[in-house]
Amino acid sequence: MVAGVAVLAVGVVAPWAVGYVTEQQWQSVATEVSQSQPLFRLETGDYDRGYLGADFTGTITVRNPETGNEHEFDYQARVSHGVTGSLMDFSLPSEAGTRVEEIFPDEKPKLTLETRLWGTALIELSIPAVSVLREETGESFDMSESYTRADISGNGAHADILMLWPGAVIRAPDLRISIEDFRLEQTLEHLAGEVWLGDGDMSLARLEVAARNEPVLRFDQFALRSETTADDDGQSLDSETLVTLESVTADDESFGPHRMAFVFNGLEVQSWSELTSALTDMQTAALDSEGGDSRAVMQQQMESMNRINQAMLGLAADGFSLGFPEMSFATPYGPVNGEIMVEHPPVPDEEKDRMMMVMQRLTGNLEVSMPLALVEQHPELGMQVAPLIKQGVVEREGGRLRMKGTLEDLALDINGNLIPLPPLF
After folding, report:
1. DSSP string for residues in 232-253
2. How many domains does the chain have?
3. Is residue 271 included in any domain, yes or no?
4. What is the pLDDT of residues 311-350, one digit of tens each?
5. Which InterPro entries does the UniProt entry name for this protein (predicted)?
6. Is there a smaller number of Cβ atoms within 10 Å at the N or the C end of the chain?
7. Mutual orientation of helices 294-318 and 269-288 as an angle, nearest 10°?
8. Which domain holds residue 396?
């Protein structure tokens, strides 16, 4: 009997406790989202919490990073409280207007957030198929149903993201753009500060652009794969990104495949986190500069720049390497190949405090090769390459043009031509 009473008591009290925790969690998330980046703010208005549920409203303010202009969008949510978690169902307010009814006449987009007391959350967004036609302009937009899911655990320290978008077609009297089969899968794991680990895959089956009096341009089988890992003690980062494109078709002529890889190795975690944070603060200051105290903004930007300098010195002191170890682009006249890599050796502990510059110890190499016929068939490209050939920076080897260089001692040696570099950082 005592056990039964205890279970009953828990069942009665649990929805109230879950509702209270859910409100606190949502307010915390809204604050953190707004403070962690400068592009949009998530604000909560009236939060009316009851025993088994709650209702609240809010506003999302989106800022244009180029102009600083802001646009506000209202939202509302219904919350259901359970024994171990809550379900939030978001929707547009009824006063959103006829524009929403025009785009979604039958079924509306659905956004839900399911939370649990132990720090997990499941976000799901479903957007129904859209078909809009403006007869007065001849413009139309058709989009298939899309789905996005984010499975968050560890109190926000881990996330698995999935996005599926089968396609869309945009038509205008002089233009047609079609997108087919977009897919994104991303895993994120928080390491420290602003640093996240994980791997991701993004793919797009086809992008086609057809404009009047222009050849149809089509890109097939685009893919981007990336992975970021840390060493065993979590002090340095390695990352690799590979971009591939199976073919490009223009004027009924196809050529491919294309590949490009980017890597960085040995980035010191604390310095990388500080660099990322400083860049974000600098961007925020730039967006807030309009209408604000110009001296305060300038001071903030100077402080961010100093943090960037110190972070760069920290990265260099521990040593790193980065660049493009593989670049291969197909053309109708032959491949364009290249490699660009830069590295900085670790600095002995007794010398770190005396470091003044990063560039001084940088070394690197670059090599780019392209078919001569490509330059000959495109006069605009030939006008840019011709002075480089005359200066000896680009050399001709048979039917190809080559540029090969090394970086050392603040100088870039390209095919025997020494180019001094200014000291940076």
Report:
1. TTS-EEEEEEEEEEEEEEETTE
2. 2
3. no
4. 888 888 899 999 999 999 999 899 999 999 999 999 888 8
5. DUF945
6. N
7. 160
8. 356-425
